[in-house]
Please model this.
Amino acid sequence: MDKKYIFIKRFWLPVALFFIAIILPFVVSEFWVHVFNEILILGLFAAAFNLVFGYMGQLSFGQAAYYGIGAYTTGLLMVKLQWPLFACLPVSMLTAGIGALILGYFCVKLRGIYFAILTMAFGQLVFFIIFQWYSFTGGDNGLQGINPPEWLFKAIPYYYFSLAVVTIGMIILYFITESPFGYTLRAIRDNTERTEFIGINVQRYMLINFVISGMFCGLAGALWGPFNRSVAPDLCGWQHSGHPVFMAVMGGPHHFLGPMIGSVIFTFLNAFVTGFTEYWPLVSGLVIIVVVLVMPGGVFGIIKEKGYFSPRDVGDVKNE
Amino acid sequence: MEFTFLFSQFMSGLTYGLMLFLVASGLSLIFGVMNILNFAHATLWLIGAYICFTFWSLMEAHQFALWVSIPLAALATAATGWVCEVVLIKRIYKRELHEQLLITYAMALIFGDLIKIVWGPTDRLIVRPSIIQKPLFLFGAPIDSYFIFVILIGVAVAVGLWWFLKYTKYGHIVKAAVYSREMVGALGIPIPKIYTWVFTLGIFIAGLAGGVQSAIGSVTLGMDMNIIIQAFCVVVIGGFGSLMGTLVGSLIVGEVFSFAILYWPDGAMVLIFVITAMILIVKPWGLFGTPLRA
Amino acid sequence: MNDDIILQTDHLSKSFFKYQVLTDVNYQLMRGMIAAIIGPNGAGKSTFFNLVTGYHTVSGGNVFFKGQEITNWARHKIAKIGITRAFQVSNIYPKLTTYENVRQSILAQQKRTLNLFIPAERLAKQETLDLLEITGLSGFRNTEAGILSQGDKKKLELALALASKPDLLLLDEPTAGMSSEETHETMQLVKRLNKEIGLTILFTEHDISVIFGYAQKLSVLHQGILVAEGTPEEVRQNKEAQACYLGEEI
Model:
């Protein structure tokens, strides 16, 4: 098949989404620019989470911990040390990665529901540390006054900044998922036992992946603080850990863009519903139930089922 | 430090530990039999506490109000659990782990908000009947007399569950279901029926615990999340599906928490996580758990 | 120790709870051989494989590979030093395509699985296609492995094992679920690999024609004990071996 044709077939969707994202601020009001910014940040968060969930096949219910570590690292560096935002982003990835390395070391010893419980418990551990360490993190008051530099202060410039960072992040994540490492993750998901017998140290790969996922969760978190001008311990809480799970499930965890699409739906819904009622958890809970019961494969699952994508072909289109 | 002080601290740790046991035992039972992790377990526990408060406020004038409200709250919560099982959980028996977890996570979100809608954000406090208003003195140490009641309930439920699992026909069926679903199916017992009643029983215990909790201190929003996470730690420490493990885990967490709060209040929760992690390094399946299901 | 011995076990034993499933097995396998372990169901053949490959922990005794003790090593380490196995019940990656299955094993052998940034589809193309060709799976390279027929899954199982470029290949009933034609093809392939690259092969099998058609050495396990050993002809004459098969013609 023609190389150009393959390229178009594989990348038309993300490229189209990217161009739509560029045009959006010219079309919609400032409120919706904020919403789209949120979509981008949470979409990166969900895509990073999906590295552990969709690709490695383990459910982490505590990824908000690393998101929160990233957010607090940037927040603290900017508020207390007046670091520039650019320098904060890589440092946030580093601290979130270190957090994921320490806690992940224990988590990757377990599988399935035990993995889910332990990640969740460790997520709450991070939450409690941040919540109770008043002198350093501001406890439940959070950190205020995380202001991005002058030229990013307005909604639209910061949106483009987020778009650039998230796009780069997503491209790196995409490369990882298509690399031999990414396929090793799929192998671990499909058949952990067999993967050991072809000579792969499964726990080590799981840990490396957990750290990578944590780093990109941290990057998403780092974007959040300056966007919201503040961070609060809730960012690490159990409710926040549930969001990427739901986004991935809603969009379809077996497609690279699934979590991002899930973020679009979820965040839109959030913006819409919170305009009417304070009971967003109630509404989101009902939506989760409906989605899980009615469309288990997510959006991309349905598209695949209806045959809008051709079956997989080596060197051709990938649905995974 | 004086003995009396340490002793009263020990008793409050014991009380807290047994309260945790009441929540964690239902959680562990449901997980052991149905392989479903009920994220909403502590939220139902909190609903039990609020319901107990409501029953109590209806009979406020009477001394017996609390004692009647607790069982009523347990029954009402169990009924709520039964409805959840029949309407929702039944549909996800054969679904994947993340779907089951998302459903119970959604239940936790929904019930959390329902509590807010029904009872509002203000704290609720039950005025105790006069018999338990004054402290008891045990070995010269002042002990909250209600703690004795809580401890008795905790022990009664532990013994009751143990007896139920060991000596009754239904208990044997439940135990068999933990090990092999096929076997129970082969005995000609309809699995869904067992699941429904196990879930209801677990929620009944949670509701009972919630009712008991309502007179320990004020009932506030968000209490459930501390408890559920500690209950997770308990079952991870003790091992899923093991009654003994849940009891031991609860007491460890309760006592550690109770004493840690004296010396390092901010770090009490962190210490529990550290202990959980340490036990996991040595015994990945918990103190009493078996690696039956990966 | 003799350099020609590739695999040796000393007093290898395994018990599950109170059940002794393997007792004091002293086994030696020479480099470059095709050998078979036979015996009735439950004789301990699979357990023997499981102990050698680290699938189960050894209860007693030692395992040596090329003179190095490997008792109770981690599975991936044993795989890395050159023992690979194909499973009795095919144990593949059901959601990946046949091509991706094989490529995964090849990339693991080439130690390229930690590579994070080169697209996997650019790597190991020729090796993967070659191996699919050899094992007769070329026609299914874009099929999800989970929907292959039983026989093709077994072929893929073999391909995954071969991709690891082992020195010793353990095959647990390699032809189970195959048609007689496929069985013949598969065993011919095994024989060719043995001849051409000197791969040592140890297999278990129920099919008498396969056992006597291909094995150069037979070992008979019965109730966890090694009761007879020798060339196919010697074993055929052996009274104890005959007793194990209880009247079955061997």
Summary: Chain C has two domains: 1-82+166-250, 90-165. The two ends of chain C are 34 Å apart (CA to CA). Chain C is about 35% helix and 25% strand.
